[in-house]
Amino acid sequence: MHRLLLVVPLLTALAACGFTDEGGGTRTLMVNARLTYEVDDNATLVQIRVEKDGLVVPGAIVEIRDADAEKSYVVEQEVLPDGEYNRVDGENHIRGYLRRIELRVESDRDRVEAKLEGPGKHRVSAPENNAVLKLKDLGDNLEVAWSTDDGLSAQEVQIRVGDHTQTITDWDDPGSYDVPATALEIGDEHARVLRRNRIRLAGGSAGSVLLLEYEARNSFVLE
User: How do beta strands 209-222 and 131-133 pair?
Assistant: First the structure.
């Protein structure tokens, strides 16, 4: 994985330029949108908050379009009038991974629109799923490793084991990370790797952002 580091940032930038677009709008709505795909559930969780002048906007038209499948989803509020927009056909998720999405938010004359390509699929390669490890054999660290389908880096990577979390930014997607053995606890554990791309929503008010995330995990036992 490390031998790809010299070419990955360039490849990622070229790939992102073809689809990702900060978009446009009236710059009157604060939109914070997060879509998180979880491999275990084969589902993309949807969390979108829409505000104007510090107040939640009820009854907005919120639409996500899967650019690859050419299918659109209407996202509704879970709780009226001040809840976040997270319901799609009565569920809090969309089945499958939406790699390239288009977001549209409208309320009266206010609007925000943008496009984002998320990270490629990845899998956790170490520790192995359902492995039984002995703390005394680990030494100073537990290696968490992951591999991607397309070899492209993500903008951010978050590694989490138990209460230990590390976030790596600026397109640095190294493929492995050493978790200090002192942060581990005996018992059932999970090694989670979440890779994320994000953009500022140019058509929204200050602080508006769109995130697209892909999370994979392996379970293991530490003795």
Answer: parallel
CA distance 29 to 26: 8
For the chain, give the longest Cα–Cα distance: 63
Question: What burial class does residue 186 get, using C-beta atoms within 10 Å of its C-beta: 0-12 exposed, 13-18 middle, 19+ buried?
Answer: exposed
- How many other β-carbons are positioned within 10 Å of the β-carbon of residue 20? 19
Q: How far apart are CA 48 and CA 7, in angstroms?
A: 34
Token output for 18: 């073809």
Calpha distance 1→90 (Å, rounded): 41
pLDDT of amino acid 155 = 96
Residues shown for the chain: 223
| Residue 4: predicted pLDDT | 37
Residue 59, phi-psi category: left (phi > 0), alpha (psi -120 to 50), beta (remainder): left
- Series of mean pLDDT values for 10-residue runs along the chain (223 residues): 38 60 98 98 97 95 97 92 90 95 98 97 97 94 95 95 95 94 94 98 98 98 96
Summarised one tens digit per residue, pLDDT across range 59-104 is: 999 999 999 999 999 999 988 777 899 999 999 999 999 999 999 9
Other CB atoms within 10 A of residue 47 CB: 16
